[in-house]
């Protein structure tokens, strides 16, 4: 990729009935140990593709898109977005920066190694965290950027700049999507706006080796993400999700220019279970090493996420305890060597 310093491309009213609340969902995905589910298909399953540009058109078009997002969240917990305003060059540059970082000598990378989950930057390779089967990763706190960027790698020299541009853009997309989902939940797009604006962003920058023949093919074991939304940029195919209708693994398609989006544990909590978190994993690609950048969006470190009181009543009692990102990190630290760790399970009432 050239990675020229290109600017990213330029980036109502809805009926009162909530698009999300009007259906029930199966909850199979967490009742079977995910490792044991069959991989159902050799071909990726079609994933809903949302044209994000339509969110800023007239109110009829917007509410159509909001409904599509709501349906995808409710039925699948994931979808993809196109026309999201992040240029291909910005995405390519972020992947290139990530890839170049992982090519650095181990001594340089190991400087970022830490057992402390609250470190602004944390490098690790497989084995220690029980879910990384075959991956190296660099986790970066990314919002508010001015608090964190001073800790980000300075090698390769382009790293901070390219990762920053992408991080800011990914966050813009996440906030736009969050508004649409809040609208669909009947909470209104301004719901808890300040907490979302001041929220956290964690980048999980992953590097998976090319699969070698006959070797273990799982890069990252099944898990769900803790936040509200994850925006995932990947260099090639490898992500799999649990398909709820067939209760099997599904390969996620790799569409040009698209970003994959899925919901996390705190979305399930906020929606009081109307939207379910998505269990996913990463498989090694047999053709090439793979880079992925997961941008995870939540509230600020100590800000508690609770079930929206508007979604709690006599028929729908509160299903989850409140929790924060900080609580999640404590949970993770206490369950580092435990494969069955599950933050959301620990929140269920
Ligand atoms: C993650 C994640 C998937 C992938 O980092 O949380 O799920 O495809 N990544 O790398
Ligand atoms: Ni994940």
TrEMBL record:
Pfam families: 2OG-FeII_Oxy, DIOX_N. It comes from the Eukaryota. Residues 1-43 are annotated as: Disordered. Keywords: Iron, Metal-binding, Oxidoreductase, Vitamin C. GO terms for molecular function: L-ascorbic acid binding; metal ion binding; oxidoreductase activity. Residues 198-299 form the Fe2OG dioxygenase domain. InterPro entries: DIOX_N, IPNS-like_FE2OG_OXY, IPNS-like_sf, Oxoglu/Fe-dep_dioxygenase_dom, Plant_2OG-oxidoreductases. Residues 9-39 have a biased composition (Polar residues). Its cofactor is L-ascorbate. Belongs to the iron/ascorbate-dependent oxidoreductase family. This is Fe2OG dioxygenase domain-containing protein. The lineage of its organism: Eukaryota, Viridiplantae, Streptophyta, Embryophyta, Tracheophyta.
């Amino acid at each position: 990729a050239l990675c020229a310093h290109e600017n990213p491309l330029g980036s109502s009213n809805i009926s009162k009935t909530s698009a999300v609340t009007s259906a029930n969902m199966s909850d199979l995905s967490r009742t079977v140990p995910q490792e044991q589910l069959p991989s159902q298909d050799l071909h990726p399953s079609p994933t809903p593709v949302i044209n994000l540009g339509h969110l800023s058109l007239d109110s009829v078009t917007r509410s159509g898109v909001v409904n599509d997002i709501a349906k995808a969240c409710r039925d699948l917990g994931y979808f993809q977005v196109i026309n999201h305003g992040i240029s291909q060059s910005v995405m390519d540059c972020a992947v290139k920066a990530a890839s170049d970082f992982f090519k650095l000598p181990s001594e340089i990378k190991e400087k970022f190694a830490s057992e402390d989950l609250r470190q602004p930057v944390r490098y690790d390779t497989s084995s220690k965290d029980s879910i990384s089967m075959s991956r190296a990763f660099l986790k970066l706190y990314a919002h508010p950027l001015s608090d964190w960027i001073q800790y980000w790698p300075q090698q390769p020299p382009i790293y901070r700049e390219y990762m920053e541009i992408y991080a800011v853009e990914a966050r813009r997309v996440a906030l736009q999507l969050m508004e649409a989902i809040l609208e669909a939940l009947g909470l209104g797009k301004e719901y808890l706006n300040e907490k979302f604006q001041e929220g956290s962003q964690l980048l999980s920058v992953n590097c998976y080796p090319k699969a070698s023949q006959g070797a273990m093919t799982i890069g990252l074991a099944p898990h769900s993400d803790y936040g509200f939304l994850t925006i995932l940029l990947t260099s090639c195919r490898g992500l799999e999700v649990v398909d709820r209708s067939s209760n099997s693994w599904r390969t996620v398609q790799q569409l040009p220019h698209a970003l994959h989006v899925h919901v996390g544990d705190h979305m399930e909590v906020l929606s009081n279970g109307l939207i379910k978190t998505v269990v996913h994993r990463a498989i090694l690609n047999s053709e090439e090493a793979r880079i992925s950048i997961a941008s995870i969006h939540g509230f600020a470190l100590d800000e508690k996420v609770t079930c929206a009181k508007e979604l709690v009543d006599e028929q729908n009692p509160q299903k989850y305890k409140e929790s924060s990102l900080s609580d999640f990190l404590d949970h993770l630290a206490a369950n580092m060597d435990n494969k069955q760790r599950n933050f959301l399970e620990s929140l269920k009432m």
